[in-house]
User: Fold these one by one.
Assistant:
Number 1:
Amino acid sequence: MRRKSAFWILACIVCSSLQLTGQTSGFFVPSDTLDRGRFHKALLFSGVTYTGFSIGLYHAWYRNYPQSSFHLFNDWGEWRHMDKIGHVYTAYIQGVLCYKGARWTGLDEDKSILTGMICGSLFQTTIEIMDGFSKEWGFSVTDMGANILGTATFALQQRYWGEQRISLKVSSSPATYSSDPIYSVDGLHTSSLNERANSLFGRSFAERYLKDYNAQTYWLSVNVKDFSGNSGSWPAWLNIAVGYGGANMFGGYENTWEKESHIFKLSENSFPRYSQFYIGPDINLTRLGLKSPFLKTLATVFNIFKVPAPALEINTRGQVIFHLIKI
């Protein structure tokens, strides 16, 4: 309930702000020169967002777990590396959006790239530091490496190509889990896949979208037109995307968990953990030729998601599967 309330409150604040500021002519058009009014607004918005995010995250998550002295934590290999790819993606997206915000204020290209790098790193590093003081987890060097890789993916493309020819995107198809009883190793207690999924990934659509690694796919969406020298008849908005996902993951490393002092273990034959690789078309929303600055802004925001489309899956179980629509 708290997460839903916070989400809708934030959405209302953002919408109200857009309604008020959007009345100014050309609000969504980036400034050619530094607009100090915009710069101060962006600085204030970033500061409030960062402070609210940090305080909210601590009270919603870390406060519920015991604290400790700063320490390291090795989580390499968890969730078949889906967590690490998620860090790359998040840092990349934060870098892109913060860069766009900086350009909107009129900052020049180099300063805007630097702003994207700093902001993209700041949010992620804050989480890692909080992890470092949590007894339950710890500071993950590999997470930080993934964060740096995501920020660098944005910054290097923007610096040397002046655009994002390769975009990182995410998709998540809602997964349903069986409520059939699963017996503990000692046969004295029952659970189910649905119960385990609720415990791991949450119950709401938003929680499942963000946390269910079995439902997520991360994509590298390549703009073919950019790499072909803008020649030929290939549409500027049509990308080719390659994706990575995983399935049958009900624990970080293995499908074993404890409930009320009873151990549950899924059979590897019935629930094999495996990786999925995809290839298929994608739409670059920023290349649709939109004229409205407002619609261009929306296209930039929603371009962080992969558009549902046909895809070919090759997985580590040796299967080749065609998906008419991969969500």
Number 2:
Amino acid sequence: MQMSYHDPVLLQECIQGLDIKEDGVYVDVTFGGGGHSREILKRLGPNGKLFGFDQDKDAQRNVIDDERFVLIPENFRFIKRFLRFHQVTKVDGILADLGVSSFQFDSPERGFSIRFDAELDMRMNQSDQMSAKEILNTYAEEDLANIFYQYGELRSSRGIASAIVNARKNQLINSSFELTGILQKFLPVKRKNKILAQIFQALRIEVNQEMEVLKEFLLQIPDLLKSDGRLAVISYHSLEDRLVKRFIRTGLFQGEPERDIYGNFSVPMKKMGGLIVPTDEEIARNNRARSAKLRIATLSN
């Protein structure tokens, strides 16, 4: 039974960017509802192959009944290891649609959305131990402040952390509305939803180690792609996009690559075209697309 997922974001732009070959091997590392995967399969011939990764048990119910498709129920930070398990060392294209799926946001019990009063969970892999609730109730005040500053880009991060630590002395913080109640003074009416979204984003990134996962994933790409293979990455906030853009440009996440005596430096990847963003029509049709940014790259050879 397929779960209710929204339209895949930047679908045609991803497919064009991947430049799909009929007999190629492709990987969709964020399978979700399978929207991108189904479109890739339409363009593959009988000898083509598609691997999907998704650690979320809900997404795993959407497995596609197609002998050319294999769903790997793991975190994509382990992409190389699990492709090797399937005797695959090189692929023609890799797609990553980062962030939280519409289905996850729309499932109150998953705790991703500020719209519902639900337990603060936010685990993409429900088997993981650490949830947002554990972080709020156990992390030191300084660590909380760092999370809200780095991952939520919140100027009031120290005040927010202090309010949480003071509140939990009296009672554990379990639900999203409990957290909202504690932080009322940091939530002016006009900016309430934006600030809450930043707070939830920061917690979610910490729960799922999203920045570390993305870095580990990107570092494996140059070894996995064939010489003319393509990488397509959709990101939804500046922290992710900055990492992707920097890696494509320099092969690093900070600093600059070393230059040779002639002032030249070699980098593993090169960008294909410019930044791609959704059209107004797509945003009107699918609100999740509003902050999406797509970057396409190949090996620099």
Number 3:
Amino acid sequence: MADYKIEENKELSIWEALTPVVLLIGMLAYNIFYAGGELWGEYSNHYILLVGAVIAGGVGFFNQISLTQMFAKIKDNLHKTLVPIVILLLVGALAGTWLVSGIIPTMIYYGLQILNPSIFLPATVVIAAIISLATGSSWTTSATVGIALIGIGQAIGMPSGMIAGAVISGAYFGDKMSPLSDTTNLAPAMAGTDLFTHIRYMSLTTVPSIIITIIIFSFLSFTVDTGGATDVSDILASLKQTFNITPLLFIVPLLVIGLILLKTQPIIALLSGVLAAAVFALIFQPEVIATLGGGTALDFSSGSKGLSTAIFVETTIASDNETLQDLFSSGGVWGMKWTIMLIVSAMVFGGVMEAIGGLARISKALLQLSDSVFGLFSSTVASCLALNITASDQYLAIVIPGKMFAQAYEDKGLAPENLSRTLEDSGTVTSVLIPWNTCGAYQADVLGVSVAEYFFYAIFNYLSPIMTLIFALFSIKIKQLVKA
């Protein structure tokens, strides 16, 4: 990504660049708020993104951009999504195998006995932050402890949006601050500073943001009426009745986290988690697997069919407890199709916008909005947000503003870590707030909670860009460039 080439088109006006964006947002808003997300059926947002791409293509034709150039950028964008798509497929498989092996039920079983409503939300932020800090991945955090925390929270009567917001807040804190994170390495590379200088400088805005987030969630915990759901004895009994609950099942998530800490590729780590969970399912949950496979006892036929069902298609484990019915289901690999198609559609739109020079034109216009230091920071934040909306990719939301604004920061006598911090405070964390962004689509699907539901509660994610602007407005810890 450090070598990414930004397409510029000097003939393109700002109004031409904004036309596809404004129409896209208008269509998406109409679909969400007036058509209930069903304007053109289940895949309405996908079609709208493709219509947006056609509109952007029309603007490109008007400015002599060839179809070859557009398709080349679309191809580049789709190539970048191959790894995320494979990860999504593995997460679907992981969710299925972790359910039937009893890993998720075991996490819920022990979590219910430790986490009570009065501390649940702040504890969720802290747990997700620790796991994400250790792994460097918000995606892995959501796919492992995030799913379990959603289950525990729902079981004690917490609103799903609140739980997901707490998980995402903690996960993105760790994603920002971990030296293992790809975005934490990418931002300083774009700005021209080193990793640990970037992390130290970023902590000035990030630590206050996460402390405020934890305080807010602590207050929210006392405002939630769990409706008497704190008596979880029936849920615990149902969990033990359906699954063989044992602490030995924690070996699998610890294995996945350990592999990531050893800097194993996420695909290998997640695949290991799927395979290990499949083995543990045969050992600890033979009756569950046999039933899924259509048999009365576990044998080769019922075992292979049961595991295939858990990995590839929708799986539901029968339970007499209504609270657990939704928790005892998983979509498997097939359940990820909606998200994958949304990502593909978003990458098509982003590719055309990049090919016609629209993304660079919008960033340049934002750069010219103000000549003050605060204006420069504001323009960077706005550019990252705009790129997350238009390019639908957090990496481009870091790379393009990073390249476009680096010289402006130097001209203002500002150290490069000012830019790298702002890129992360606005580019990395806001990606999950956009439903069609790869991050927003992923988190919504994995956690089973729509972006609209968790948006208001993803406190850390919208507090971070506000915090960086407050620091800029009052010139708090704005490091100047030291020239040799």
